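Reminder to self: tokens first, then the designed residues, so the page reads top to bottom the way the pipeline ran.
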């Protein structure tokens, strides 16, 4: 039995990367999915590739009216809304130094990464509250959990997503609505153009490279009934990065014994 049979889901940022992989997995698991994205070409193409179980709606998640239209579209097209994956996000300018950052992109990054998640959660929850509940999953980042240099507005927006999501998990529980976050680590997508091999070597205990599908599997868990007792959590999908950096490999030198030899033999 597929995990999401009979469910209707919205995936924002569904035309690329993590969102696209999740939309594909959701359809494989029996859901009908509305893909929302500002990139109409990629969004249309993704929906077309997924067939009649998917539809595309051009949406800027920072626009509250557009998000309401998105929810209305999903309900009209597929007859309900059970899963809302607020995943669209942008990194903003990649200033390494806070002192050099003029914060010109503050409003846009906060508008997409935080307001988009807030209004997406609210408009989905307003529908779910009157229709038996649902599951909301919001995309944060390991950048919200581990402090670090650079991209300060992005870090702040993603940290706010966690506090917002855990707080509304409390607020919405009485309506049978679960709210959880995922916090991806270093996942190769069009957003991540840096040299991941070096970063993973230094910061990630599991040395395998995570993929959008790895994140999609975690989202599927939070969307499905397998996580029926789980709300208000943050699930890192990060190869252990937030647990701590890998132990540096060292030559293990044997201490000389009392007789002055290195022992052994
Ligand atoms: P991606 O491949 O760039 O996908 C994001 C999609 O969202 C793109 O199609 C993008 O369109 C779209 N989008 C941007 N602004 C939007 C808006 N206002 N309304 C609707 N759609 C919008 O990036 P990704 O790596 O899959 O990222 C997905 C989420 O994961 C983001 O929230 C990101 O911050 C988070 N994340 C990613 C990583 C990682 O390593 N990849 C790590 C931690 C967190 P455009 O391309 O036209 O902007």
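Designed residues (265 positions):
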């Amino acid at each position: 039995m597929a995990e999401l049979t009979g469910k209707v889901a919205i995936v924002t940022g569904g035309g690329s990367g993590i969102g696209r992989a999740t939309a594909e997995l959701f359809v494989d698991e029996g859901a009908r999915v509305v893909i929302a994205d500002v990139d109409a070409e990629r969004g249309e193409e993704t929906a077309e590739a997924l067939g009649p179980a998917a539809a595309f709606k051009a949406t800027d998640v920072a626009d509250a009216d557009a998000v309401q239209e998105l929810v209305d579209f999903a309900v009209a097209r597929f007859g309900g809304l059970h899963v809302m994956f607020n995943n669209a996000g942008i990194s903003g300018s990649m200033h390494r130094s806070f002192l050099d950052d003029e914060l010109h992109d503050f409003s846009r990054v906060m508008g997409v990464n935080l307001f988009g998640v807030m209004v997406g959660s609210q408009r989905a929850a307003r529908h779910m509250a009157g229709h038996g509940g649902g599951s909301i999953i919001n995309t944060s980042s390991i950048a919200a959990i581990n402090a670090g240099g650079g991209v300060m507005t992005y870090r702040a927006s993603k940290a706010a997503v966690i506090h917002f999501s855990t707080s509304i998990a409390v607020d919405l529980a009485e309506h049978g609505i679960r709210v959880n976050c995922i916090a991806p680590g270093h996942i190769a997508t069009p957003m991540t153009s840096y040299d991941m091999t070096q970063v993973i070597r230094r910061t990630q205990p599991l040395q395998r490279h995570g993929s959008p599908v790895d994140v999609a599997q975690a989202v599927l868990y939070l969307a499905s009934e397998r996580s029926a007792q789980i709300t208000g959590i943050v699930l890192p999908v990060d190869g252990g990065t937030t647990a701590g950096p890998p132990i540096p490999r060292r030559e293990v030198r044997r201490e000389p014994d009392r007789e002055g030899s290195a022992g052994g033999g």
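The chain has one domain: 8-262.
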